[in-house]
Structures are given as C-alpha cells and as structure tokens.
Amino acid sequence: DSGVTQTPKHLITATGQRVTLRCSPRSGDLSVYWYQQSLDQGLQFLIQYYNGEERAKGNILERFSAQQFPDLHSELNLSSLELGDSALYFCASSRRDGRTDTQYFGPGTRLTVL
Amino acid sequence: DQQVKQNSPSLSVQEGRISILNCDYTNSMFDYFLWYKKYPAEGPTFLISISSIKDKNEDGRFTVFLNKSAKHLSLHIVPSQPGDSAVYFCAATPPTNAGKSTFGDGTTLTVKP
C-alpha cells in the first residue's frame, strides 16, 4: 500500500459526459501528479501540482483540468468524454517537487467511456 | 515521436538467472532516469534511479547501467525471482519541470520457477 488513495476504482460513463477523479496523497506529500495509461502503453504525464499550484504540464487535453485543494487532495476533471479517453488514470504523490523525489502511485481509476 | 522506447514488450527468464531489461531514449536533454515495477491492479512502484553523472547504480539485486553516448539504459536483476514477474517501465526526466517524466511502454518480465 503506497498510501495514495484514488476514487473511484472503476468508472463507466458515456461519450459527452463529464467525470471527476479524486486523489488523496500520502500524508505529508505536497506534490500530486496525474498520469494516463492507455491500453498497453506507457504512462503519459498529464499535470503536476505542488502545494496547490500548478508546477508542470504535459500533453493534457483542454477538455481535462485539475486542481489541488488546500488539504492537498487533488481532482482531475474530464469533460466532453470521447471513446479514446478510456484508460487507467494514475495519481502519484511526492514529498516535494524535485524530480529526484520518489513518486508514490495510487492504484488507479479505470475509466471506460461507452 | 516516442522519446523513450522499450523495444522488448516481454521477456521470460528462469529463476536464478539474470534478467536484462533495456530502454533507449532520443532526447539528449534527459539527465535523470528511473525504473518502475508494476503488478496487475496496482500502481507503479519506484525501483531504482540513476543520474547522468553516473554510469551505474546498484541496489541489492537491481543494477541500472547508463550509456549516455548510446542513449541507452538497462536494468539488471540478479538473481531473478518469481516475485519479480511484473511490468517494468523506464522513465526519463529533463533538468527542468520537476515531475515531467517520459515513460516507455513497458516490458513484461516473467520469471519461471
């Protein structure tokens, strides 16, 4: 158990809908990262927040947005969902925002768009 | 353009033998490299890392080698154990952008008893 929790574990929805994925980092971790893993592919970095501020951005679609709240949990919002958005979404956390900080991953949320 | 490539989708080795997982990268700006292990239904777990100022880093049974001129890194597991059976991802990070690692597609390692 990494100490990072993600809810829900599974999500099935329809095209055009909007969903929110939630992540609670390990106690004391200030950074939260979001990744997308499509079928049989590597993890694609989406976005990183550090202590409530956006720190780094990957190839995150404009239909996707995220935020980190004062209690340091984070939410990833996916809107106008398309079939291709079906994937595993992982959240990770680290103590600080340095790139040598170990990232601890949650178990992921599996999103299925029908 | 895939900047980090793991050309072998799968690898099968006998218990007790060496497992060698390979990773190639194209972006010479990458200077910090990581390996993660992932079991089914779990998130990736950090395994070992290496900075570009080194060419080798060792942690128990796991050793990572970096060849900067060839833009190649490898993970050696000696001796391999059945519990090592998992998907292994390599990742590379540039000097800026704290958490912005680029991952390979992974190699599935199977260690047979």
Output the radius of gyration of chain B.
13 Å
Uncertain ranges of chain A: none
Strand content of chain A: over 45%
Query: What distance lies between the first and last C-alpha atoms of chain B, to the nearest angstrom?
Result: 38 Å
DSSP helix fraction of chain A: under 10%
Q: Please compute the radius of gyration of chain A using only Cα atoms.
A: 13 Å
Total DSSP E strands of chain A: 11
The arrangement of helices and strands of chain B along the chain is: EEEEEEEEEEE
Low-pLDDT residue intervals, each spanning 5 or more residues of chain B = none
Count of DSSP-assigned helices of chain B:
0
Q: If helices are DSSP runs of H or I spanning 4 or more residues, what is the number of helices of chain A?
A: 0
Assembly type of the chains comes to heterodimer
Describe this structure in words.
The complex is a heterodimer of chains A (114) and B (113). Chain A is 0% helix and 51% strand. Chain A is built from no helices and 11 strands. With 114 residues, chain A is mainly β. In chain A, a hairpin with a 5-residue loop joins β7 and β8. Chain A has strands spanning 5-7, 10-13, 19-24, 31-37, 43-50, 53-57, 64-68, 74-78, 87-94, 104-105, 109-113. By secondary structure, chain B is mainly β. The N and C termini of chain B lie far apart (38 Å). In chain B, the strands form 2 sheets. In chain B, strands 2, 4, 5, 9, 10 and 11 form a 6-stranded mixed beta sheet that branches. In chain B, strands 1-3-8-7-6 form a 5-stranded antiparallel beta sheet, with no helix packed on it. In chain B, β7 (62-67) and β8 form a beta hairpin. Classes of the chains: A mainly beta (114), B mainly beta (113). Chain A binds chain B through residues 2, 4, 31, 33, 35, 40-45, 48, 50, 55-58, 90, 92, 94, 97-108, and chain B through 4, 6, 32, 36, 41-46, 49, 51, 89, 91, 93, 97-106.
